[in-house]
């Protein structure tokens, strides 16, 4: 514990000292990123930031059943998560292209074109998702885009389509209005996604 306090104090003192120095631009690294440093008593010190990495403790289970349930959740998230990321990318692409379109008919034609492309490429794969994986996908779409699947369908296809697909989803025990709750019921899913992004799973 004392070691952690000393390391923290040392890092803080270096940070405060660095803030009082003039920051200088050094050169670009191999990837083309600009490197910065400070000059301290004639020595140039590199300033760098490190991306946050969360390390989760090894999970302990009360029973083999709990362990199997957790492993099944990991498998389901791994199956659904790529489609949620794809949804975010497609939504970003649609928003950029929408800004270039001037009429409603152009926008409708563009949406139909994108929908056809997605269906042609991913329909067979998406049909293979289980109901549980579909529910996780609905939650992850909200996590990735910041909007529920219902709201996305409503924006892109209109209220009637959103109502229609919500009705179909409810028949299968799902809800397009489901929101991602990272601090509550979806905490485990969020943890799994973070570990996938960090290359830990």
Give a written overview of the molecule.
The chain is mainly α. The protein folds into two domains: 2-47, no CATH class; 64-197, no CATH class. It is built from seven helices and three strands; from the N terminus they run αβββαααααα. The chain has helices at 2-20, 64-100, 104-127, 131-145, 149-157, 159-171, 187-197, and strands spanning 23-28, 34-40, 43-47. A three-stranded antiparallel sheet has the order 1-2-3, with no helix packed on it. Strand 2 and strand 3 form a beta hairpin. Helix 2 packs across helix 7 (187-197). The radius of gyration is 24 Å and the shape is flat. It starts with a helix and ends with a helix. The relative contact order is 0.09. Residues 12-20 have low confidence and may be disordered.
């Amino acid at each position: 514990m004392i070691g952690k306090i000393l390391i923290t104090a040392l890092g803080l003192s270096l940070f405060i000292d660095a803030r009082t120095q003039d920051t200088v631009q050094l050169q670009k690294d191999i990837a083309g990123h600009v490197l910065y440093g400070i000059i301290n008593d004639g020595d140039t010190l590199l300033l760098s930031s490190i991306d946050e990495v969360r390390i989760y403790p090894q999970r302990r289970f009360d029973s083999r059943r709990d362990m199997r349930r957790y492993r099944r959740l990991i498998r389901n998230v791994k199956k659904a998560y790529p489609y949620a990321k794809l949804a975010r990318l497609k939504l970003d692409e649609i928003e950029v292209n929408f800004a270039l379109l001037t009429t409603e008919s152009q926008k409708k034609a563009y949406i139909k074109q994108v929908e056809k492309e997605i269906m042609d490429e991913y329909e067979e794969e998406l049909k293979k998702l289980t109901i549980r994986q579909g529910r996780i996908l609905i939650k992850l779409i909200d996590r990735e885009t910041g909007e529920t699947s219902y709201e996305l369908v409503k924006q892109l296809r209109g209220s009637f389509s959103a109502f229609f697909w919500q009705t179909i989803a409810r028949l299968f025990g799902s809800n397009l209005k489901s929101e991602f709750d990272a601090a509550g019921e979806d905490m485990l899913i969020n943890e799994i996604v973070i570990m996938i992004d960090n290359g830990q799973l």
